[in-house]
Amino acid sequence: MKNVFTIAKKEYELALHSISTYIVYILFLVIIGIIFSNMVFKIARAELRFLFEVIHIVFLFYIPAITMGSIAKERQTGTLELLSTLPIKLSSIVWGKILSALFQIITIIILSLVFFGIIVIFGEGIDYGAIICGYIGLILAGLAYASIGVFASSFPSNQILAFVLALLISAVFYLLKFLLPLLPFGLVPIVQYFSFDYHLSSFLKGVIDTRDILFFLAVTVIFALLAQFNLQSKNLMQEK
Question: What is the dihedral angle through the alpha carbons of 165, 169, 170, 172, rounded to the nearest 10 degrees?
């Protein structure tokens, strides 16, 4: 566990020293800010649920962008092979990468609290419980997407390909909700269960359901194990 946090801390610090990280942060906040201003000042909706839904969509692009180089970049530069000579378990490296991405997700969510502050100042009858639950749901969904991103990054040495693969896998989990009207009634509950939007919707309503928490954690663990298995299958490094 110590190695996991050490790797995560190092990766997070490196990200904060990269100009590209701040460019992504700025783009994220600008996009959210434009949508938020239209919602509050033009539509007069002083609430965050709609904004959370938008953030969820932006996550489909934002998280693949911050995870695409997590392993692909190290393979491209040869540092992945160097790590194999150190007394570090492969699982620690994978989880360290995921945790580092989670730190960045939490960072951007903290920065987005400025919109929450605006709601507090100008809004009335604010449901603070629903807002807190919404943020918790976004963090859990973000963690699952981060795991998918690290898994995608474990395949190619090209970061762009890793981004596209992560985007495609993440989009599948998001777009499942649009398939429901086209499916036979008996298949709807099954397909719906794998929809990220379905599990996130409870949080946005102010409800914390352990089944939704377990779903996001299960997805995270599954893709982390797949990333580990993929690296092992390529004989890039062995468990110590």
Answer: 140
* Paired tokens of 46: 């002083």
Neighbours of 23 (CB within 10 A): 11
d(CA 201, CA 164): 26
| Distance of alpha carbon 113 from alpha carbon 225, whole angstroms | 33
Is pLDDT at 105 greater than 70 in this prediction?
Answer: yes
Specify the amino acid at residue 228. Q
Q: Note the pTM of the prediction, 2 decimals.
A: 0.89
> Do 138 and 108 meet the contact criterion of CB atoms below 8 Å apart?
no
Residue 200 CB contacts under 8 Å (≥ 6 apart), including other chains = 52, 56, 137, 138, 141, 212
Tallying the residues shown for the chain, one arrives at: 240
Judging by beta carbons within 10 Å of its beta carbon (0-12, 13-18, 19+), is residue 212 exposed, middle or buried?
Answer: buried
Q: Choose the most confident range, by mean pLDDT, from 27-41, 47-61, 164-178.
A: 164-178
* Residue 29 CB-half CA count within 13 A: 17
